[in-house]
């Protein structure tokens, strides 16, 4: 019996939820690895392809095909009425991704850089900027315009974002190798109270990296849902409490 992998679509994941159990289809693992490896070999010859930026010894090896390892994905279909405009998460390996859930290919950097990125993308301060300009589709062109603050390794707040995002992303042993590279334990943020507190602290840390102040935070959370300015007041209060410890 061949190994069967789920094929993800947009509703297969949510923010800090890498597997909702809803799939587009299923696929034979060996066939997908062979197909995607061949596709990568062909695309790396194109100068505009991201695969062209990867070392050839890496792309020659079928064991490095992206579907075998955790990677960041996002929904490219969004609406102004959605709760969030950026729905992105780190999905486990042994998953195939359909067109409406593009993934990010890491051509340089480390797992810690991935943790920083997924932490920023999953924060409300980042989402607020995207909601100003995205209406129906979050294309790669629009995605590339998202401002990602990075103070560099060794910055205490940046390192805290990496730690929080790593803990929130590494929900189970499917992320064990990735979590070890980030330097966080697996499954340490699955308790709901712990998870929510870390999400609030993450918002505060990301806001700090963006150079925001408390007035800016009030604008973000009271205008995030323009029809219900009071919708996120509890979250605002929790975020400000963490924010004040950083300033």
Shape: globular
Low-confidence stretches: none
Overall tally of domains:
1
The order of strands across the largest sheet is 2-1-5
Concise overview:
This protein is mainly α and 247 residues long. The protein has ten helices and five strands; from the N terminus they run ββααβββαααααααα.
Helix-strand layout with pairing:
Layout: E1 4-8, E2 25-28, H1 29-43, H2 56-59, E3 71-74, E4 88-91, E5 96-97, H3 111-121, H4 124-131, H5 140-143, H6 156-169, H7 176-182, H8 192-210, H9 214-223, H10 233-246
Parallel strand pairs: 1-5
Antiparallel strand pairs: 1-2, 3-4
Helix pairs in contact: 3-6, 6-8, 8-10, 9-10
Descriptive overview:
This protein has 247 residues and is mainly alpha-helical. It has one domain (4-246). The chain is 43% helix and 8% strand. The chain has ten helices and five strands; from the N terminus they run ββααβββαααααααα. It has helices at residues 29-43, 56-59, 111-121, 124-131, 140-143, 156-169, 176-182, 192-210, 214-223, 233-246; strands spanning 4-8, 25-28, 71-74, 88-91, 96-97. A three-stranded mixed beta sheet has the order 2-1-5. It has a two-stranded antiparallel sheet with strand order 3-4. It is globular, with a radius of gyration of 18 Å.
Descriptors:
mainly alpha; 43% helix; globular; two-stranded antiparallel sheet; 247 residues
């Amino acid at each position: 019996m061949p190994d069967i992998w789920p094929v993800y679509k947009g509703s297969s994941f949510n923010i800090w939820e890498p597997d909702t159990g809803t799939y587009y289809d299923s696929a034979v693992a060996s066939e997908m690895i062979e197909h995607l490896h061949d596709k990568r070999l062909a695309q790396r010859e194109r100068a505009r392809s991201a695969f062209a930026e990867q070392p050839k010894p890496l792309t020659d090896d079928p064991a490095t095909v992206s579907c075998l390892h955790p990677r960041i994905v996002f929904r490219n279909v969004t609406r102004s009425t959605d709760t969030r405009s950026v729905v992105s998460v780190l999905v486990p390996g042994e998953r195939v991704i359909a067109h409406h859930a593009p993934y990010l290919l890491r051509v340089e950097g480390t797992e810690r850089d991935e943790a920083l990125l997924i932490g920023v993308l999953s924060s409300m301060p980042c989402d607020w900027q995207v909601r100003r300009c995205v209406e129906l589709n979050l294309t790669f062109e629009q995605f590339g315009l998202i401002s990602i603050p990075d103070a560099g390794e060794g910055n205490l707040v940046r390192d805290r974002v990496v730690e929080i995002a790593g803990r929130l992303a590494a929900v189970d042993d499917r992320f064990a190798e990735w979590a070890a590279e980030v330097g966080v334990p697996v499954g340490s943020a699955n308790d709901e109270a712990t998870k929510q507190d870390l999400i609030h602290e993450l918002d505060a840390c990301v806001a700090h990296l963006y150079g925001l102040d408390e007035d800016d935070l009030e604008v973000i959370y009271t205008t995030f849902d323009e029809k219900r300015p009071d919708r996120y007041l509890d979250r605002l209060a929790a975020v400000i409490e963490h924010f004040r410890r950083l300033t």
